[in-house]
Request: fold
Amino acid sequence: MTALHPTTLRGTRVLLEPLAREHHDGLVAAARDGALWTLWYTSVPAPEGMRREIDRRLALQESGSMLPFTTRRVDPGTGEAGPIIGMTTYMNIDRDTPRVEIGSTWNAASAQRTGTNTESKYLLLRHAFEELGCPAVEFRTHWINHQSRAAIERLGAKQDGVLRSHSRTRDGELRDTVVYSVLAHEWPMVRDNLRYRMARHA
Reply:
């Protein structure tokens, strides 16, 4: 997977750019939009923990297990990149298969249900299948996070199974993790579905 290195992915509504420490203030502002760190089903860092989270993701990038992005809103009219609205990543990278998981994603409350998350997933999936040559792309979420599960299923991903008592939440509770994936031969249908959904937001 020689093509897996920090890169910028541009759409008509979002820009995914390599995470950098200078994004700190913009990410704090995005997290404050909806006080996202207070929601039980998310793992969004509180403002005082944002710098630590940026450092954590960059350390994982250095080790080769994560490729983190900062998400910016793009003005559909001018094409100019605007404010930071969140973060996303390729994570649990397996370079030998090659295979990636799309996860550790969050978006400001005002950016939700605007088509930005759909386009982010489209850009990441297209890059994984068409540039990186992945035979599969994975998604994972908490069993009881029905909103996240429904969103993943709307992408066209199929459930692989449930990892019971798989990990602990930030509150120390055991979590059952639902695993989904999209396979390479499914990508054309998933791609067309995502393009249709993006066109509805145009």
